Amino acid sequence: WRLMSAQKNLRRRSKSPPALVPRDYKMASNNLLVLSESIIERINNEDVKPQVPMDEVAVPEAPTEELTILEFEHDAAPKTPTEVPKAPATILPSTPLPFPTLEAQVTEVGTVEEKLEEPIPTGTFFIVAETKKVEADPLPEEKRIEVASTPQHNLVGSLVEEEEFEFQFAKLRVRNWSPSSGNYFSDYIKEGLVFKGQDPSNVVMLFETPSKYTAFNNESKWGFHDWPPPKYPTSKSVLGPCKYSGTTGSALPVFLRGGKPPVGLMEHWSKYMPGHVAPTFTNKISDQNLVYAYLPVEKIKHHVNDPSVHFHLCGKDAIHLMTTATTKLLPDTRESRPCVVKTTHSMGSKGIFIIRDDEDEKEFEQFLVDSGNPPYVVTDFVDIHRNVACHLFMHPNAQDVVWFGSNENKRNPDGSFSSDSYLYVSEQEDLKKKQLPFVNEVVQYCASLGFWGFLGIDVLFNSEGQGFLVDINPRVTGSCPALMTLQLMKKKFGFSCGLFRREGNINFYGDHQELFGQVEAHNIENEGKTCIVIHSYFEAEEGKHMRINIGVYGTDMDECMTIVNRFGKPLAA
């Protein structure tokens, strides 16, 4: 229903008056069509069967104006109607599927018709979701599942110690990540695959970003917008992947082009990341490998998640399908100013413009010409008071969530927002409560499309405390390694804050020997007070300067900032 509604709205907006109008609505509509076809193909290729025989399900009488809906109850101990949680919606095509026929169960199914100027290029959908199983007989004792024996429970139970924060929010069971769990990125993916009955022995973790400027170029589909081109493409193949590798663990290998990280990095992690688990690396991905990809890659044959679904979730044009708690979509750049325009599949801060006047509009139009005219959306402007992001892992069961934490971006003296990630232990619980309502909607939407794994969610709050979900990152996100490192530092030293600088244009002037020598001298002299961690680096110009991702952890944020500024500087003119 959401896909069809989006297609209808896209067509309506294509009639907008000539201004700076998102002129790729047709492309966006086609993306939705490809997505729906991908879901249908995945469902038809699976042995899809209801988990309870149809004769055990009683269908409540539906109002005549609503579409009749059904729920297939899980094979578990029965619950009373008031205890049964709503299941995430699953979109099924109206073409024949390997389900028992619905005709014997439903005497009349209402149809929903709308007169459109153009026909929707897909068929009608049945929505199987959100009703209760009525007066079902209790399941025999031998059919009931002992929770303690399921892979799901083994995974969730090992995430945190019993005394760690734990609660249930709506449909989600949320647990904090803890160093004591011993679980890192690859552990969660491996055990998620086991839960789904898949063999993890041939799985590779891929953190490299697909780009037209690297070997992983998505030429015909799943195109990401990365204009202007990076000065050093190595930042995509080394800087990002190494940053995530430090907290990946050893359960699954990480793809790295050179087969190993830059000199000295592994030794540095081992020395200054408490309890560090060394990752393993590979420089090969074959057609036989199953890949957990940071983003969908055209050259990869087998993805853990459906790549078309993954690409859809990456888009700024998908956010309005997930929630109404977001910024308002505008038909063009002149209806309301200031407004914000964003290319749908840009990364980081690229492709985002604030349009206040005609000069801003001309600048964005030139960007479109230079960058190949990527699709974009126009939204209203939010006067930002707080800019926060949270980082989590969603289990394949769409209920259990591992919460890694939240970071905040602060304003610079000139009023712009810093790209530095501010991390405070004392604010974690408050930020979690503020963001969970948004997380719940996103997780349910992702699960309804079969997606699971890591997520990053950005929320803006205005001065009145109203939140707006503005970005979804269905992947491991940039500040997550720093949040995990702060927890490691808290456990060992009692540290309470950290500052993480990861913008690609952060440099240390010198070679790797000078860098690690200065870092070690500082950490020895200030042990127990502050600690520097180089999360990633590569030599941009040999012997002259290095691009780095740096985190400083301690008990005073101003002191952390002073140290970060000493090591991580913008590129000199």
Summarize the helices and strands and which ones pair or pack.
Elements: H1 2-13, H2 25-45, E1 90-93, E2 125-128, H3 151-157, E3 166-169, E4 172-176, H4 185-195, E5 203-206, H5 234-245, E6 254-255, H6 265-272, E7 281-282, E8 290-293, H7 307-314, H8 319-322, E9 339-343, E10 352-355, H9 358-371, E11 376-380, E12 386-394, E13 400-409, E14 421-424, H10 428-448, E15 453-461, E16 467-473, H11 480-493, E17 497-501, E18 507-509, H12 512-525, E19 530-541, E20 545-554, H13 557-567
Parallel strand pairs: 4-13, 5-8, 6-7
Antiparallel strand pairs: 1-2, 3-4, 9-10, 9-11, 12-13, 12-15, 14-17, 15-16, 17-20, 18-20, 19-20
Helix pairs in contact: 1-2
Walkthrough of the structure:
By secondary structure, the protein is an alpha+beta fold. 27% of the residues lie in helices and 20% in strands. The chain is built from 13 helices and 20 strands. The protein has helices at residues 2-13, 25-45, 151-157, 185-195, 234-245, 265-272, 307-314, 319-322, 358-371, 428-448, 480-493, 512-525, 557-567, and strands at residues 90-93, 125-128, 166-169, 172-176, 203-206, 254-255, 281-282, 290-293, 339-343, 352-355, 376-380, 386-394, 400-409, 421-424, 453-461, 467-473, 497-501, 507-509, 530-541, 545-554. The strands form six sheets. A six-stranded mixed sheet has the order 3-4-13-12-15-16. Strands 14, 17, 18, 19 and 20 form a five-stranded antiparallel sheet that branches. The longest helix is centred in the N-terminal third of the chain and has 21 residues, at 25-45. The N and C termini lie far apart (52 Å). Residues 6-19, 23-29 and 47-165 have low confidence and may be disordered.
